[in-house]
Amino acid sequence: MEAAPVGPPASMDVDKLTYEIFSILESKFLFGYDDPKLLFSGGSPHRPASGAMAGKVTLPRAQAGKVCILSIDGGGRAADGLLAGAALVRLEASLRRRTGDPKARLADFFDVAAGSGAGGVLAAMLVARGKDDARPLYSAEDALAFLVRRLRRGWSSSSGGLRALLRRPAGGAAFQKVFGELTLRDTARPVLVPCYDLATGGPFLFSRADAVETPAYDFCLRDVCAATCAGSDRSSSAVEVRSFDGSTRIVAVGGGVALGNPTAAAITHVLNNKRGFPLVSGVEDLLVMSIGSGQGASTSEIVRIAAEGVSDMVDQAVAMAFGHNRKSNYTRIQAMGSPRGSRCAAAAEEMLSQKNVESVLFRGKKLAEQTNAEKLEQFAHELVKERNRRGAK
Question: Out of 3.40.50.720, 3.40.1090.10, 3.60.110.10, 3.40.1380.10, which CATH number does the structure's domain 67-152+171-193+259-392 have?
Answer without folding.
Answer: 3.40.1090.10
